[in-house]
């Protein structure tokens, strides 16, 4: 079973990376379902693009009552959690460094402007990002909740030697996303 899975994986990765052909075009949906989001191929490991505007991702949870009233919790800085997990660790995990940042980057690229349902890939990445937020909020002890909301603060990198504190140039608050109930 392991050998079969490995062979199927190698074939799907080959078809994903190969120039367009009859087989890869016919089975593109199945190939993409296998590749994204865990096996995405890019060259950033060898030549990463430095961030020109770092982003801080915040999340909060909410509980919706039977009457439809939503009670929101406090914002939790998910980016600060990642930074704390990496700082002072001589061998930080790749996941701790990049999972949230890459999930947001891929989502914002796939979604474009607004939060209306976009292409299937954007919807999948929205579920992935909501899952990351829900998992972190549940681990933080946010109690029972059934929806999450994200806020992203983007701060441009100032010129070297420029005085004054950096302030966010833009804040994007996404709508509430329903998630699997946590704590119920």
Short description:
With 184 residues, the protein is α+β, with helices and mostly antiparallel strands. Helix content is 41%, strand content 19%. Strands 1, 2, 3, 4, 5 and 6 form a six-stranded antiparallel sheet that branches.
Q: For the residues shown, what is the average pLDDT? A: 82
Rounded to an integer in angstroms, the radius of gyration calculated over CA atoms is 19 Å
Q: How are helices and strands ordered from N to C?
A: HHHEEEHHHEEE
Low-confidence stretches: none
- Give the total of domains: 2
* End-to-end CA span: 37 Å
Describe the sheet with the most strands: 6 strands, antiparallel
What portion of residues belong to β-strands? 15-25%
Helix/sheet category: alpha+beta
According to DSSP, the number of beta strands is 6
Instruction: Using the alpha-carbon principal axes, give the shape.
Output: globular
Q: Helicity level, as a percent range?
A: 40-55%
Helical run tally:
6
